[in-house]
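FAQ

Q: What does a record look like?
A: Structure on top, sequence underneath. For example:
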């Protein structure tokens, strides 16, 4: 590897706080964007309820988990309670209904891994994907949103990490790099691990919210407003955290043995997850446990080529954070 192992942060690190916070502010969506999304959701609800009176629509993904940058697409889940739901049939029907109401570029992708209908709202220009009965995604969206309310540094760190990942081309699951969802989990886990901790482990606390979805029990403490300033004893700044995040993934994570787990707020071993060898396409080269579907490794998309790309990008970022005179420019230079 070309970069040296680093442990001690540069002395001028806190001069980077202002520029990082400025980047965060420019990425953050404005309030009126939320209002437009709401408006589109209301329209969709009206159309859907005519055909399926008991069905419900939920927002999930970055438009609802509070980690969405300005002008993101919105992800919607149509929850239908029918014994045997033929998703393709419903999606095709839904596409007809939407088209008839003048929504633009309506497309049913019935053979995708997650089948969806895509559309564009001609009034607001918002792009939208609608899937069916992906209720676990709605629940994990709530978990992420609840974590975001505990300490603002989570949202700041995640925006910067997602922006870096998109700029550097390592947020492409079809090319073997990680999803945005995986990056959010990496940030939550990282802040759970700081000493003193910046985030608690909500799934290890008293249960105040519990649902069972697709036979998966999802339970955790969701009264996060009661946690007040949980992270106040830790005074690390955003620049220090960005530095430490990349340092961790570049030089400190044990890729051979460790699994990061937001569910337990700790590191698990590949051994105990039985993720020690390749099964089918799951290679477990970087292991990120899904908080509810615990048999899911969000790193499963990563292959022997893309793991190199990822680790080199982490090292590049760590090196820039340590030595570059202008990290806030260099870090996000397009790939
Ligand atoms: N999701 C999931 N399991 C995955 C990937 C995604 O459950 N392996 C769900 C999560 O609820 C996630 C949502 O799908 O919030 C959208 O995933 P993704 O597109 O990765 O994240 P976004 O937050 O929408 O990010 P972006 O801003 O890049 O659209
Ligand atoms: Mg999305």
């Amino acid at each position: 590897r070309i970069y040296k192992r680093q442990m001690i942060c540069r002395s001028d690190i806190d001069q980077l706080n202002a520029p990082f916070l400025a980047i965060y502010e420019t990425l953050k969506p404005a309030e009126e964007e939320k209002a437009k999304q709401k408006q589109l959701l209301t329209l969709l609800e009206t159309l859907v309820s005519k055909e399926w009176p008991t069905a419900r629509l939920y927002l999930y993904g970055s438009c609802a988990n509070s980690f969405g940058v300005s002008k993101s697409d919105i992800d919607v889940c149509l929850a239908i309670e029918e014994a045997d739901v033929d998703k393709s049939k419903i999606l095709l029907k839904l596409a007809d209904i939407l088209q008839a109401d003048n929504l633009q570029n309506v497309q049913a992708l019935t053979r995708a891994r997650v089948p969806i209908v895509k559309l564009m709202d001609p009034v607001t220009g918002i792009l939208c994907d609608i899937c069916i009965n992906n209720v676990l995604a709605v629940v994990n969206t709530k978990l992420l949103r609840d974590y975001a309310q505990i300490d603002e540094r989570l949202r700041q760190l995640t925006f910067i990490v997602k922006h870096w990942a998109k700029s550097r081309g390592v947020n492409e699951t079809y090319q073997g790099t990680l999803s945005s969802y995986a990056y959010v989990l990496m940030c939550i886990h990282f802040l759970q691990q700081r000493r003193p901790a910046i985030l608690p482990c909500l799934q290890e606390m008293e249960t105040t919210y519990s649902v069972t979805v697709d036979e998966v029990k999802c339970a955790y403490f969701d009264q996060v407003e009661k946690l007040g300033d949980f992270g106040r004893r830790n005074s690390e700044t955003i620049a220090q955290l960005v530095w430490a995040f990349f340092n961790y993934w570049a030089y400190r994570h044990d890729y051979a043995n460790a699994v990061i787990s937001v569910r337990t707020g700790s590191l698990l071993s590949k051994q105990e997850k039985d993720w020690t060898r390749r099964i089918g396409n799951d290679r477990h080269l970087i292991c990120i446990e899904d908080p509810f579907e615990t048999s899911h490794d969000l790193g499963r998309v990563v292959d022997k080529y893309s793991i190199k790309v990822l680790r080199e990008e982490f090292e590049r970022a760590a090196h820039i954070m340590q030595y570059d005179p202008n990290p806030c420019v260099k870090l996000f230079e397009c790939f």
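Q: Is there anything notable about this one?
A: The chain is about 40% helix and 15% strand.
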